[in-house]
Design a protein that fits this description.
By secondary structure, the chain is an alpha+beta fold. 45% of the residues lie in helices and 17% in strands. The chain has helices spanning 4-16, 23-29, 53-67, 74-81, 85-98, 113-143, 186-192, 197-206, 220-233, 278-298, and strands at 72-73, 101-104, 108-111, 146-153, 156-163, 179-181, 236-239, 246-254, 260-269.
Length: 311
Amino acid sequence: MKNPMASTARSSFSKVASRPQNLLAISRTNHSGTEWGTDRDTGEANGGPYKLEGLDRVVAILDLLGESDNSLSLAEICRQMSLRKSTAHRALMALERTGLIERAPAHRYRLGLKLYDMGNRAVEQIDLRARVHPYLRKLALRVGHTVHLGVLHKTRVVYIDKIEPINRHVCISSRTGTSNPVYSTSLGKAILAFLHPEEIARTVAAVSFVSYTPKTLTSPEELLSALARVRRRGFSVDDEEMELGTRCVGAPVFDEGKRAIAAVSVSGPASRLTAHCVPVIAEHLIRCCQEISSGFATQDAKLLIRSSAGR
């Protein structure tokens, strides 16, 4: 009988498992005599200097479980991958501990629902970025500063898109895919300020405050006060709180249910993006975010974005 949980997770896992070659096939051919290669330091015997033996092994196990219609026992995994029992057991315990696989009845294993969540999150972020990108380009041209798109993940904001102005004077150090703390970024504060009060309280309680500059917020009270200002004004400001010499203005993006799912920010050197410029920048930014939010509302955004980066 087919395993519906494995099938569901497998479908989601396949969305982000676009590999140049099938690791399961590698695992089935690389075990004639020696387990996972002969050069454990560089891996050059089995795939070049960037091969990570342990990582390849666990990904191959996920691949195997994903291809199976039913849960698999330890013995079946060992047999199909030519692994020693102790080796396979260690990998399975690590995967189970992280929620990537689950223990099925009779000591069998299947893909975990965490993979389903991760797959959906990856697709959502890709779709969000594709939908918002044209708005970001237009905004960057209008204001002449760097524009970011970010989503909230626990107590950090993840940058999922970045547009540099054509005639940029200073390169902003942020990179797509990296993250920064919610309390020291305009993106983070713009999203957090408009979440449900219980979510705000839970997130603020989980923050470990670190002072990056003399202007960084360093307590829950300071952060809550800043969030109240964001709600009153409709936009947030990172006034050199993450990096001296850089000022950012952020505003939230809402889905059709009026939930803050992302934020857009304008960032630039404090010498050019002065305090006097902030209201004008904020006006352009808020208009951009309103246009994005309206687009989601008319295109049934719930089918596109079910949560904001891990919530």
